[in-house]
Write a structure and sequence with these properties.
With about 240 residues, this protein is mainly beta. The protein has strands at about 5-10, 15-20, 25-30, 30-35, 40-50, 50-55, 70-75, 80-85, 90-95, 100-105, 110-115, 120-125, 130-135, 140-145, 150, 160, 170-175, 180, 185-190, 200-205, 210-215, 220-225, 225-230, 240. The strands form six sheets. The protein has a four-stranded antiparallel β-sheet, with no helix packed on it. The protein has a four-stranded antiparallel β-sheet with strand order 5-6-7-8, with no helix packed on it. A four-stranded antiparallel β-sheet has the order 9-10-11-12, with no helix packed on it.
Amino acid sequence: MEHIHGIGIDPGDGAVYAGTHYGLFRIADGSATRVAEVQDYMGFTVAGPGHFLASGHPGEGQGGPSSVGLIESTDAGETWETLSLSGEADFHALEYRHGRVYGLNSMTGQLLTSTDKQSWAEISSAEIADFAVSPDDPDVLVATTQQGLTRSTDDGTTFEAVESAPVMVFVSWADDGTLAGVTPDGVVYTAQEPAGEWTEQAALDGQPEALTIDSATQIYAAANGTVLASTDGGATFRPMLDR
């Protein structure tokens, strides 16, 4: 498992999945099992039980355009179907919320959204690294930038700086309203609202690669090819894989 680009939790069985440069892996009982054929998952998110969305590049010998656009699996990653933007989008960040797909297209720098996974509209062209959508309001987003965390309350039309937050590279927003972010040097922070107090938590052992918060207590991160889990709100992290 190298170059982990996304972590998701299947709500059907609680299994943890990691989208990587060498395929999709299911992590359980201290080991990682590759799911289906190898391809490069640059973006990955869980939309529902056994329902995954992803983007990236085809695996060796698979053919087709160099970027797969938006692809979908309804059998927990065993098979995938191309839905849209093949050859036109390489989403490095994906999220499914409020019946909408949100994707950050690395090929154009656009933050796009779709309600049918086929037709897309631009939300923003601001230079952002990662984003998260409020679980309560589809028009509220937070995004990480080189200057710091920003927030939009008008569906990405405008963003304003969040002065209370540190500069972060990845950010995630749990269904219970808790936010988590990680700085470029691997320090995890949490908050109850974007403009509120961001509390410093543990530091990851290595450069951060991905971050997902499932609840106020459950946070998953990736660093140096290892998936880490926290069950105490980020105070401590432990590797999910036996070495």
